[in-house]
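not sure who needs this but someone in the group chat was asking about Glutathione transport system permease protein GsiD from Methylobacterium frigidaeris so here u go. i didnt clean anything up, its just raw.
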Amino acid sequence: MSVSLSSTRPARRWRIGYRISPVGAICFVVILAWALVAIFAPLIAPHPVGEIVDFDFFQSVSAQYPMGTDYLGRDVLSRILFGARYTVGISLAAVTIACVSGVTLGMTAAVIGGVFDSALSRFLDALTSIPSKILALVLVAAVGSSISVLTLTLAVIYIPGSYRFARALAVNVNAMDYVTVARVRGERLGHIIRAEILPGIVGPVLADLGLRFVFIVLLLSSLSFLGLGVQPPNADWGALVKENIGGLSLAAPAVIFPLIAIASLTISVNLLIDNLPQKIRDRSEDA
């Protein structure tokens, strides 16, 4: 009796997976760590945010104060941990508002077109023509620097860019045959945007969200450095640099460590975007 060769040959199948680079994994861990710090800062900070722990200001790194003390003798480590709540929290809220608003308006303008598209685009173009730092300074100086004002100001500044990006993507998707079929079927505007346009642009939009998060972190830090950000005794990382800049000549860690915190977060987000998990198809063998 003969045995078929095909029966003894191992079966092959395709398996779909994701390839994550080591750099992307490390950056994700750093971002996750800062997110957890922002959430649990009151539980892990060794001292309250405004407590003066030593009357000897600008102390160097020691076992008692791992990041030294600031210009008033407050623990720098505790202030950086609490500062993460404002830097990460405000930036995340602002980028969420900006991207959700901008993407929604961009998809709507691409689908409706006509006068609505032209009028909205010209208005947001006019808003884009104003330098972001100048617009932020004017709005915050006029209205105040509360958390809600900072968040809305940062969101308004980055809505036009998010709108432009989403609209450019949505215009291309709107020309696809399946969108035309959905329109002929009589689907409503909301269904076309939600079920036909959005799935085709969600990948680039998420990458754009990450980049705008970095821009907002840097702009918030700039505002705080100018004294228009989070107000004392609370502080974000930019405010920590500003209030301790006088100790830079003393090589004070109070200036260096907040800068490292800003750099670690922004660089990690940028590198994570560049190393996003890529879908791959692996051929595997089953005995």
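also The radius of gyration is 25 Å. if thats useful
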